[in-house]
Amino acid sequence: MTAALEDLTGPPTTPADTASPDSHLANNYHPLPVVLTSGEGAWVEDSTGRRYLDLLSGYSALNFGHRHPALVAAARAQLDRLTLVSRAFDHELLAPFADGLAALVGPLLAAPDGVLVLPMNTGAEAVETAIKTVRKWGYEVKGVPADSATIVVAADNFHGRTTTIVSFSTDDDARSGFGPFTPGFRVVPFGDADAIAAAIDETTVAVLLEPVQGEAGVVVPPDDYLPAVRALCDANDVLLVADEIQSGLGRTGTTLACERVGVRPDLVTLGKALGGGVVPVSAVVGRRDVLAVLTPGTHGSTFGGNPLACAVGLAVVELLRTGEHQERAARLGAHLGRRLDAMVSEGLLVTARTVGLWAGVDVDPARGTGRQVSERLLERGVLVKDTHGQTVRIAPPLVITQQDLDHALDELAEVLRDAR
Ligand SMILES: *Cc1c(COP(=O)(O)O)cnc(C)c1O
Fold this sequence. Notes:
CATH architecture of the largest domain: 3-Layer(aba) Sandwich
Cofactor: pyridoxal 5'-phosphate
Bound molecules: pyridoxal-5'-phosphate
Keywords: Amino-acid biosynthesis, Aminotransferase, Proline biosynthesis, Pyridoxal phosphate, Transferase
EC number: 2.6.1.13
Number of helices: 13
Order of helices and strands: EEEHHHEHEHHEHEHEEEHHHEEHEEEH
CATH topology of the largest domain: Aspartate Aminotransferase, domain 2
Number of domains: 2
Pfam families: Aminotran_3
Largest sheet: 7 strands, mixed
Radius of gyration: 22 Å
Strand content: 15-25%
CATH superfamily of the largest domain: Type I PLP-dependent aspartate aminotransferase-like (Major domain)
Helix content: 25-40%
């Protein structure tokens, strides 16, 4: 039944049924049945007044929790000044944002001559920016013949949803039906440096990887993998591009996940938490000589680097500057890992992969699907989301208290125990 206007005055208490012919919302998501109305820190409240612990954190866009006071204050102050100028004009926060992000991330890159920052909005746009940059670098600097550049990527990757990016996805749902695809990508197994070596030739301009594969279920490669990839890139004049949109900005216990294994990429894509859960903010940070191939007219975005985005992004950089959130992620993450490993020992979980305050756990099919576990946790006031059938991803806000984290994990253990 089509809702009459008078029916739309109050907030809905049940989620839109996007499979229904009456829904006007496109059916490209399958959300859990909850309508959220407010949030603070690690907690959110639904339209019936029920509270939930958020262990998804907007896929790590909410690393600092819901409505972090410093981020809300920065956004509010900027709303009263200036929100958009487009890049046709400069504004007073654009250079400070670039300087701040360069100071935070630049020292972590293989960039002795410094870095440049290119602000965009969504993660996919940052990845597209990196792809365009390394291709142009390949033609103008490396000397790759026109239109023949190749980029080596990993199977089970997730880099976003644009036509070019899904061209090298190995997820059939993400890819099929969207061709013709952009050529120039070579897909090799994740975690296998020899496969990268075999895929590199004189046309190769970059290796593009997630240091930890998030959407794939928090898949952590062997510790010697990224160092080996770095060495291969150095030996073959190939750029290493780390997509840290989900893994970066504190999640794994360091500012970049690459730091864990002492690897410095040439370019890094950042997003999600860079916008503090307030506005979409993404960026490519990379070697000055590489990003310098982009000149006026070659790339851009109407909203990229807008004043509101820069105000929030700068406040995010400020939160990460002291290292306290990274330390907290490492400390709470060690606790999370111990507790999940204990659930594996108890037979409640098949496997648990934990890195920093981030985990992918595989549920025994006898105890239900990832979706069913997520739905049962929802009933107990804990929000998580399944991925790829049997996997549940756990990514609490870095500001969660250990007590709240323990409460959520107790509920997870109970749900798994009851399911048999
Ligand atoms: C989420 C994500 C993206 C895409 O970000 P959007 O803002 O959704 O476009 C790209 N890469 C990784 C690793 C991600 O997790």
